[in-house]
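Tokens for DNA-directed RNA polymerase subunit beta. Go.
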Amino acid sequence: MADNFHKPTQFSGNKFEAIKGGEDPATISRVAHETAQALLTRVRSDPDPATVERLVAYTDENGIDAVAELWSRATPRSLPGALWRIYLIRLLIRQDPEGTAYLYQRGIELARTIDHVVAGAAVPTGPAEIIALADEILRGMFTGDFAVALERAAAYCRVTATGCTSVADDFEQTEPARSSALTTRALRLSTTAAEFTACARLWRSESLE
């Protein structure tokens, strides 16, 4: 799937993989890994608060285009792949904080795990709290324990996937198309959660590249 993005870019909830890249896959992969590693190494070695905040808010001012061009075609279980998905999750949250908060809160009410504790959003979770969570997770990629940031992102995805599934059941009889879209979103969130978890393990074993 390939789209041409124009600032400001708007992503629908089902666009977890979408960008047209260059012609040489090997070059694309090399550039993605080199830029991700260089950025992370530089910022984590000297985490100036102003620099970190500019990176957190980068896509707000510049759109998702540049990040997508660099990292969106990287494999999910890689450093650039993880960074891309974190930025994309944050963008999707900020595009619909009310809807996302509703799904997340529904997930909290139904989940039988401690995922909402791991994710760390304030409860009850409204639009302001879900936006704050997205920013905290991205900030943690640059300043805190990278693996913990990934695990928080994974937990957020699992909780929201539970909420999506529950709301999908609500609309199964009355709005089947909406139900189907929510079910698909839940599956993609669950897949992304597994990818974040795998990346966290790789980071701890110093194998995330």
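Residues 24-209 form one domain.
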